[in-house]
Amino acid sequence: MSRLVFVTGGVVSSLGKGILTASLAAQLESRKIKVNVLKMDPYINLDPGTMSPVQHGEVFVTADGAETDLDLGHYERFSNARMKKINNFTTGSVYAEVIRKERKGEYLGGTVQVIPHITDEIKRRVMLASEGSEVLIVETGGTVGDIESQPFLEAIRQLRLELGRARQVLIHLTLVPFLNKAGEVKTKPTQHSVKELRSIGLQPDILVCRSEAPISDAQREKIALFTSVEKRAVIPLKDIDTIYEGPIELNKQGLDDYVVEYLQIDCPPADLSSWKQVVDAQMEPTSSLKITFVGKYLELLDAYKSLIEALTHAGIKSKTRVVIDYVDAEKIEREGVEVLDGASAILVPGGFGQRGFEGKIAAAGFARENKVPYLGICYGMHAAVIDVARNLAGLEKANSTEIDLKTDHPVIALITEWQDSSGRIETRSENDDLGGTMRLGEQACKLASGSLSRHLYGEETVSERHRHRYEFNNNYASQLVSAGLVLAGHSEDGTLVEVVEIEDHPWFVGCQFHPEFTSSPRNGHPLFSGFVEAGLKKQAENS
Ligand code: GLN
After folding, report:
1. Does 511 participate in catalysis according to the annotation?
2. Model pTM?
3. Ligand 1 closest atom vs CA 412
4. What is the C-alpha separation between 217 and 90, in angstroms, rounded?
5. Are both 252 and 376 inside the same structural domain?
6. If exposure means fewest CB atoms within 10 Å of the residue's CB, which of 143, 219, 229, 422 is most exposed?
7. Whose CA is nearest to atom 1 of ligand 1?
8. Which of 230, 262, 278 is the last residue of a domain?
9. If you ran DSSP here, which 8-state letter would residue 83 be given?
10. Does residue 248 share a domain with residue 350?
């Protein structure tokens, strides 16, 4: 039976609960423990799929096609655990299930309440996610004290009682601020946060204390005394240079040792050598490359979390410091493609809707004409296809039907039918719901021999994750191919175009899928590595 590690956060948000959780997963995995990770999110949306990227950040897509919180991306990047639909749920989804059962009469006329019905459903989902692993780490979104997360905390309280000591442990992440005027760190917010936890019946076993300044031994002792946590279990966490240092730093402070001791797990010590290699490569690059990133959700870069990480990973692989130059697609619309002059590599990420799309098409055209390495992801592939249609194939005003339903040349159009990874046929029409109806999740793609992508992957069939509603329109295939577009990848049944390239171009790849979701710091990803390599070449030519 699996053991549970609960992670809660206090004092303020954005302390890095996701990174702490992911780092612990990496540590335990390096001790040969089979881990899995679950994120419980306190909001009412069924999933983050319909939430604005500038409010909620990226939607991370799992192999089995769930639209999930971006923290699941961290879990996959830090560990070998593969996230599935059951690894993330929201308050809304819990209520939806309970209400569904109520309508069915499954509560036999009883009054349906937060305790026990909502908490029972939460506990059921936690135990479901724990199946098959030795340790399940459960991260609770939000901050202790929020109304929204109370049912989750109550469920944790019940589970702790039911499981007993040694089958579960509670880690609370807090902030120990440094006050400039006073010249010292302050422990009071941590004391208050623990008091808040206690008021709902939760006594933490481990405190991880984020602080910019060192926390002295005396202060650790004070925190321990006021919070009834063993001093050894008051773990200071200073700011780190890169998130990938998390497993190493927390190991130095004794986190994994304490957790396995508490949970009475017999296992070897942590071997974090692969993480040391990652950090060394990242901190001591031998070259540097500026990548021009033409996006539109630039107010909140979390909207591009996995993508930014994937570029960092490619840098780690080649010991290159990747510097991202963010260019607002609308700026290109206003000021022209000249703003891209001198670019060594251009990336157009995924996106939705009209705003900035013409700027993205112009960026693809600029990269094509000036032989600048181009990586277009999903919407970035659509932009590249439209550029070729308009400017090489003479299809004036070609567009995606996402933008212009009545376009004369719908080279990108609504995807009406596809086969999911299990072989089931999915169909869609204009009138479907917006939530959860895109082509989602991992599907196989066959790469054409002789193509750049085939060379980069070194394999004929690859599996990558999707999240889109529109696709390449095959009615235009022969025209666009004659104009110089290479159809380099297709879905396994051959019906959907998955990858496009450009003839006579040093490096141009547009992919319908999102390769960023499968990149990791230790393994990188062939498309991103190839892109950075090509960018370095172009940069050398330019200089
Ligand atoms: N908006 C496009 C579509 O729905 C692309 C989506 C994306 O970039 N993820 O097909």
Report:
1. no
2. 0.94
3. 10
4. 39
5. no
6. 422
7. 352
8. 278
9. P
10. no
Set 209, 378, 445, 511: catalytic member: 378
Residues 308 and 215 in one domain: no
Element of type H or E holding 412 = strand 410-414
Q: Clarify whether residues 133 and 12 are in a common domain.
A: yes
- 470 CA closest ligand 1 atom index: 10
- CATH number at 365 reads 3.40.50.880
H-state helical runs in 419-513: 452-457, 477-482
Single residue among 278, 306, 341 that ends a domain in this structure: 278
> Residues 402, 501, 516, 533: which is the catalytic one?
516
What's the mean pLDDT in 450-464? 97
Assess whether 290 and 274 both reside in one domain. Answer: no
3-state secondary structure of 192: helix
Catalytic residue among 56, 74, 409, 514: 514
Same domain membership, residue 500 and residue 379 = yes
DSSP 398: -
Task: State which residues form the domain around 219.
Answer: 3-278
Helix (H) and strand (E) counts in the chain: 18, 25
Confidence at residue 55, expressed as pLDDT on a 0 to 100 scale: 87
List of residues 6+ apart from 307 with CB closer than 8 A: 58, 347, 349, 377, 516
* Same-domain pairing of 324 and 467: yes
Q: Is 74 exposed, middle or buried (0-12, 13-18, 19+ CB in 10 A)?
A: buried
User: How many domains does one find in the chain?
Assistant: 2
User: What is the CA(437)–ligand 1 centre distance, in A?
Assistant: 12
514 is catalytic: yes
Q: Within 6 Å (CB) of ligand 1, which residues are found?
A: 350-352, 378-379, 402, 467-470
Candidates 399, 401, 402: which one to mutate for ligand 1, based on the most atoms within 8 Å of Cβ? 402
C-alpha of residue 467 to centroid of ligand 1, in Å: 7
- What pLDDT band is residue 334 in, cutting at 50, 70 and 90? very high
CATH number at residue 197: 3.40.50.300
- Residues of the chain above pLDDT 90, percent: 88
Closest atom, ligand 1, to C-alpha of 467: 9
Which amino acid residue places its CA nearest to atom 6 of ligand 1? 468
Same domain as 220, residue 122: yes
